Amino acid sequence: MPENTVTTPLAPMEPEDVADAFNYIRALQAGDIDTACAVANDTGPELRRLLLDVAARIFIPVTAVDDCDGEPCAHSFLAAALGRLLLEVLSHADGACLAFSPGIAQTIIRFTENILTEDHGDVADVLCQLEAAGLKQAMEAHPAHRTTA
Q1: Which of 5, 34, 44, 121 is deepest in the core (most CB within 10 A)?
Q2: Is 45 inside any structural domain?
Q3: Which residues pair with 34 in a beta bridge?
């Protein structure tokens, strides 16, 4: 099997990168274009990579089904392939709107709404939970970024 994000763990993001990406995503989700633009301007062209990192951390765990009762099955491979395909489309969509920061963020929002919430529940709350999990992982991986109280 070729190495991919299902078989190779993702390197933790920097805490600031997690915060910047989710500030942009949550601003778009709330319809706050001014804040989204400010975050995009402050972050610069790096925002696209940060959003792809966040997308990978959301899509891959959800679509990476290990097995069916201890044995790989068609659903395992289909779900993992779907996650990889979605990330590939976002990464390499040669000029398509999805390949740019607003498209990537909107895809994360739609995925969260359609897959990670029940009956299209509170997307903002789920995004906050995802951000908290990402920040926790980043802080554990980069302890120098911890603040002292």
Answers
A1: 5
A2: yes
A3: none
